[in-house]
């Protein structure tokens, strides 16, 4: 057959009870063997729905995440920092492109995803609803928000859905530059003047609570975790990911002489787990539901870009082209 | 809006805040598949897809999306609808086992053949065949490129449907290795960090 089907329909079920038990068993056995699921393979509706939700949210986070950093390109200190930040922001938008493609292989058209983002139906990472007041805020994102994203992405790259894993492999390779660049920026602030050090300390104070929110609610209140992990869509619990991030980056932050604004933050040497003050999950819910400092601005910037580009897209459309799902 | 970013403040007021008109489900650009040759002599491999109004724009977007880093010596794009796809197999079954019929020999058109040799990985260029149509190309590939190794999926693409890279265009990637600012290795903070830690101690 020639490539490019369109299979997206609203998925109404959240249950696997109505699935063919033989096909479901074969599907689960394939995942158990460590094989990847490809777009043309049979898959339960719930798997498809969960993957679309997760990959689409990831794609939106990349495209929205480019905004708080992008705003600092013109004000980045020096030509080299401007070049680096431009390259990083271009990468983030490129990552969104890769992820939208992966989600499209599951049957949801790209434009529908953009529409759901702008209408507020689909979510994106909460952390990008906070403002970047100073250059140090931008450095915090480049180093530590990207570090958090890499922790999640490296784990999920070992998941079960082929197109998502391939996109994540490429993304993780590019993210290594982001991480090193971000750390480089923060080393310069830490070893700079008293004003520079203070600027990063203030950024750290502002961003630490959203950074703790970044990995999601503790698993006891996360409805999606269990099924996503069984099908190797999500490869670690929210708490495991948060703990891994703390393990890797708290010592590096302390090494640079900064103070993390949580008096209870301490590693339990017996369990190997970090103790910390429970993040304010009411704030998390409030922001995810649209009441954050920058939710409105982020979505308006996307909506206005969409509206202003419409005439160009309309002018370029021809009857010869047709949207179809990507192949792999 | 009350933004910290003056460029956001300057955005014109268009449309209605928080609302976007729904599009017809498939009222959008076409889909194109992207294939990259990482180094001269290495086989082309499938990298992903882009959406574009035509082949030319698809080529430009593919270059920006898939060849900003690493090495690239050539790339090509084709409309997703021009990729003829075999069934996907698993276990010990080769996709060639499911290609029924007898090859009627070479035809006038040339086709590029792609194999998926490991599930979860990318499709890799396996060779070219001449045939009269895509199905005939599958049969020709079965006769000439099927070396007994497991192949889980086969793609055939008619060569004259592909937008290739010209010889002059290969210059696009000459400066790629010089763009160190996109590379983690360009951000060595070690010496500065060491000096800082020594001073702190």
Main attributes?
heterodimer, A: about 325 residues, mainly alpha, Ferritin, about 0% strand, B: about 200 residues, alpha+beta, 4 helices, 7 strands
How would you describe the overall organization of this protein?
The complex is a heterodimer of chains A (328) and B (201). By secondary structure, chain A is an all-alpha fold. Chain A has a single domain (39-300), classed as Up-down Bundle (Ferritin), CATH 1.20.1260.10. Chain A is 60% helix and 1% strand. Chain A contains eleven helices and two strands, in the order αααααααααββαα. Chain A has a two-stranded antiparallel sheet. In chain A, helix 2 runs antiparallel to helix 3 (79-104). The longest helix of chain A has 29 residues, at 162-190. The radius of gyration of chain A is 21 Å and the shape is globular. The model of chain A has no long low-confidence stretch (mean pLDDT 92). Chain B is of the alpha+beta class. Chain B is built from four helices and seven strands; from the N terminus they run αββαββββαβα. Chain B has helices at residues 6-9, 55-66, 134-144, 190-200; strands at residues 30-37, 45-52, 74-79, 83-85, 109-116, 124-131, 153-158.
Topology:
The complex is a heterodimer of chains A (328) and B (201).
Chain A: H1 21-32, H2 45-70, H3 79-104, H4 110-118, H5 135-156, H6 162-190, H7 194-213, H8 225-230, H9 238-255, E1 266-267, E2 274-275, H10 281-288, H11 295-316
Chain B: H1 6-9, E1 30-37, E2 45-52, H2 55-66, E3 74-79, E4 83-85, E5 109-116, E6 124-131, H3 134-144, E7 153-158, H4 190-200
Antiparallel strand pairs in B: 1-2, 1-3, 4-7, 5-6, 5-7
């Amino acid at each position: 057959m020639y490539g490019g089907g369109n299979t997206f329909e609203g998925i109404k079920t959240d249950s696997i009870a109505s699935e063919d038990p033989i096909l479901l068993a074969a599907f689960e056995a394939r995942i158990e063997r460590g094989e990847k699921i490809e777009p043309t393979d049979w898959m339960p509706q719930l798997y498809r729905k969960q993957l679309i939700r997760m990959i689409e949210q990831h794609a939106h986070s990349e495209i929205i995440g480019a905004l708080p950093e992008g705003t600092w390109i013109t004000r980045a200190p020096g030509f080299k920092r401007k070049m680096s930040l431009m390259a990083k922001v271009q990468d983030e938008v490129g990552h969104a492109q890769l992820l939208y493609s992966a989600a499209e292989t599951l049957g949801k058209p790209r434009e529908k995803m953009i529409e759901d983002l702008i209408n507020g139906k689909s979510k994106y990472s909460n952390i990008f609803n906070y403002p970047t007041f100073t250059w140090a805020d931008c450095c915090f994102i480049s180093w530590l928000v990207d570090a958090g994203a890499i922790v999640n992405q490296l784990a999920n790259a070992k998941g079960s859905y082929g197109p998502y894993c391939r996109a994540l492999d490429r993304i993780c390779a590019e993210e290594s530059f982001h991480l090193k660049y971000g750390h480089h920026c923060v080393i310069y602030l830490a070893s700079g003047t008293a004003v520079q050090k203070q600027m990063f300390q203030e950024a750290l104070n502002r961003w630490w609570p959203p950074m703790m929110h970044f990995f999601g609610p503790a698993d006891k209140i996360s409805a999606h975790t269990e099924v996503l992990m069984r099908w190797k869509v999500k490869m670690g619990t929210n708490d495991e990911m948060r703990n891994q991030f703390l393990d890797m980056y708290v010592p590096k932050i302390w090494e640079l002489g900064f103070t993390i604004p949580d008096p209870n933050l301490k590693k339990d040497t017996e369990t190997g787990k970090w103790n910390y003050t429970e993040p304010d999950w009411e704030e998390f819910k409030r922001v995810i539901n649209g009441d954050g400092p920058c939710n409105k601005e982020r979505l308006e910037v996307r909506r206005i870009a969409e509206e202003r580009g419409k005439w160009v897209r309309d002018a370029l459309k021809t009857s010869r082209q047709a949207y179809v799902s990507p192949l792999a | 809006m009350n933004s910290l970013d003056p460029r956001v403040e300057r955005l014109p007021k268009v449309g209605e805040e928080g609302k976007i008109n729904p599009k017809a489900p498939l009222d959008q650009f076409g889909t194109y598949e992207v294939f990259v040759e990482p180094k001269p002599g290495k086989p082309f491999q499938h990298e992903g897809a882009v959406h574009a109004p035509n082949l030319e724009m698809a080529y430009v977007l593919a270059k920006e999306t898939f060849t900003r880093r690493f090495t690239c010596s050539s790339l090509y794009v084709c409309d997703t609808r021009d990729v003829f796809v075999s069934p996907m197999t698993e276990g010990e079954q080769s996709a060639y086992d499911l290609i029924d019929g007898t090859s009627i020999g070479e035809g006038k058109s040339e086709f590029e053949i792609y194999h998926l040799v490991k599930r979860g990985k990318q499709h890799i260029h396996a060779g070219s065949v001449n045939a009269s149509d895509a199905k005939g190309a599958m049969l020709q590939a079965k006769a000439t490129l099927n070396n007994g190794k497991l192949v889980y999926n086969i793609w055939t693409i008619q060569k004259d449907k592909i937008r290739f890279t010209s010889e002059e265009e290969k210059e696009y990637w000459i400066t790629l290795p010089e763009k160190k600012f996109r590379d983690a290795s360009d951000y060595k903070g070690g010496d500065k960090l060491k000096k800082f830690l020594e001073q702190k101690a």
